[in-house]
Design goal:
The protein is of the alpha/beta class. It contains 13 helices and 16 strands. Bound molecules: pyridoxal-5'-phosphate.
Length: about 375
Amino acid sequence: MGDTVNRYQRAFTDWFGVENAFAFWKGRVALYAILKALDVKAGDEIILPGYTCVMDVNPIKYLGAKPVYVDIEPNTFNINPALLEGKITPRTRIIIAQHTYGYPCDMEAIMTIAAKKGIAIVEDCCLAFGSEYKGKIVGTFGKAAYFSFQWNKPFTTGLGGMLITPDDELSVKIQNVCDMQMCQPSAKEVFMLAAELFVYRMFIYPRTTTLAQQLFRFLTKKGAVVGSSSSTEFEPVMASDFFKAMSSVQARSGLRQIRKLEQNIVHRRRMALVYDRLLAEKGFPPRQYDKSVMDPVLVRYPLRIKGKNKAIEMAPSAGVELGTWFECPLHPVETPLEKYNYTPGMCVEAEKAAAETVNLPLHPRVSEKTIHRTIDFITRFRPVVPM
Ligand SMILES: *Cc1c(COP(=O)(O)O)cnc(C)c1O
C-alpha cells in the first residue's frame, strides 16, 4: 500500500527535479504540513493573495497565525508585487505565491522582496501544473510548493495533495510532523472515493458536468459522498482527522494521470490558443501578461464579463460548463470573511475580479467543438477590460 504512494511521490520528485515529496489526502493538508514544519506559530503573519479559496486560509488559522491579504494584479489575478512590501511587518514569516488559474506569479519581484526581508516563499501550485516563469517550472522557486488533485485541478484523483521541497532540512521536519500527527483515511472514505472516481470517469463529460457537479454538491451536503469540503471547514477549527494520509487508490489514479501529463499540458496550451483566437474574432480584448517571462499552462480560461451572475444562471441550459471561482476574495461565497481576517474593501481588485470573472473549461475532455459552443454562449455577454 505505502508502495504505491511512494511511487507517486517519486513521480513528483522526478518531474520537478527536487529531492523530496510527500503525499496527502488533500492539498490543504500539504500546506498545513509545510507551515507546521516551518514552525509557524500563533501571532505569525502569512501573506497570500486576497483572491484565493478559504481552504487555503484554514491551515494558517489552525496554527493561530494571521492571514494577511495582498491585492491582485488584475490581468494575472496574482499578488501585485507593488503592494507586497507594504504588507510586510516584523511578524511576517511566509509569502504564499499562488499561481492563479495557471498564470505564474511575478517571481523575480516577489523573490527580491522576500530575500531582502528574510521571508520564506511557499508556492501554491494547485492551479498551475507545468507553467513556467523565465523557463523554469513553477513549484521550484520557493522553500516548498504544494499541489491539489481535487476535481477542478490540472489533473484529478478525486481528492489528493502533494508537497515538494528541495530543502532536506525542511523535509526531515515534515517527516517528523507526519510521524507525529498523520492519520490514515478510513476504509469507508477510501471506498467512497474510489466509487466517486469510477463514476467520474464513466459519466462526467463536458456536457453533463454542470449537472453532475450540482448532483455531486447536493450529495456532499447530504454527507453521502466524500466531498472536498465539509461545512465544518468554514470554521477555522481543525477537525481531529484533518491531517490525513493519501490512500493508495488516489496514488494509483495519480500515477495513471502522470503518464498522460505531457498530453494534458499540450492540450491545455493548444485549447487556450483556440479560445484566444475565437474571442478575438468576437472583438474581445486579448489576454495581458508578460509573455517574455511567463509561459502559463492554464487550468481554466478566466474571462471578465458584464453580467456574471446571469451567465452562470444561463450556462447549464446552454450546455456550457462555466466556472464561477473565485466568487469572493475567499471562495466560496459562504465563507464568513470576518472569521478569516478579511474586511470588505481590503483588496479592491480582487473583489472586482470576483464579481466579473468566469472561467471556461480546458480539461482533457474539452474539444474544439466544446470551445465553439462555450464561446458562442459567453460572447453574448460583453467583455470587461481591467483598469
Ligand atoms: C483547490 C485549491 C486548494 C486546496 O486544495 P484541496 O486539495 O481542495 O485541499 C488550495 N489552493 C488553491 C489555489 C486551490 O485552487
